[in-house]
Amino acid sequence: MAVVERVPNVSSITVEPSWTDGARRVVQCSLPTDNEPSMVRCLAAMSSMVRATTSEGLPDASVRVRRCNTTAEQRGDDVAVLKQDLYALCRVDRRRDAIARALDFFDDRLLAGDFRDCDRALRQLEVAKLSPSVLVSILGITIRAKKLECRDSFYQRALEEIARQKGKKYATELLTKYR
Questions:
Q1: What are 27's strand-pairing partners?
Q2: How far apart are CA 138 and CA 168, in angstroms?
């Protein structure tokens, strides 16, 4: 089967043509689940492929798209993965990588309007396991998100943890602009 369209920033599009009952053509596609824009590009590519297939005269074309890891229940695991990643990176003193991971997580969800996942992450993150620079980065990226219910309590916990590590005066001066 010819490639109809290449999709940038997507690891793969898997197309498995098969005949279900002899009368219908089924095209299955594995979609990346790490970010919604990539999924949209994949669906657009699949749509082009189906149009090309049906224009070749194959009757009754249908598309069955299986989206993995996109239910609310499963997406909650994203927060667990974030926690594991951040704790592991901070434990081995890879603060820049931890900051990048945190910023990617919150930026993607804030842009998508997924405030529930952001709140869940803010509520579940254990500030004692994160470096002060990661805490500040999370506070920085969420500062304008007024819809986040858990940000104030995260700020308070971050302030207390940084005060414990570096002193109250330092923590207050550092975090005042992130209130």
A1: 63
A2: 20
pLDDT at 44: 59
Check if the beta carbon of residue 29 is closer than 8 Å to that of residue 13.
yes
Cα three-residue angle 121-127-131, rounded to 5 degrees: 110
Q: With 70 as the cut, is the pLDDT of residue 164 above it?
A: yes
In the chain, at which residue ranges do the beta strands (DSSP E only) sit?
A: 14-15, 18-19, 25-30, 61-66
pTM above 0.70, yes or no: no
Instruction: In whole angstroms, give the CA distance from residue 78 to residue 91.
Output: 20
Q: Is the pLDDT confidence value at 14 over 80?
A: no
Which region holds residue 160: left if phi is over 0, alpha if psi is between -120 and 50, else beta? alpha
| Of 57, 63, 56, residue with least CA distance to 15 | 63
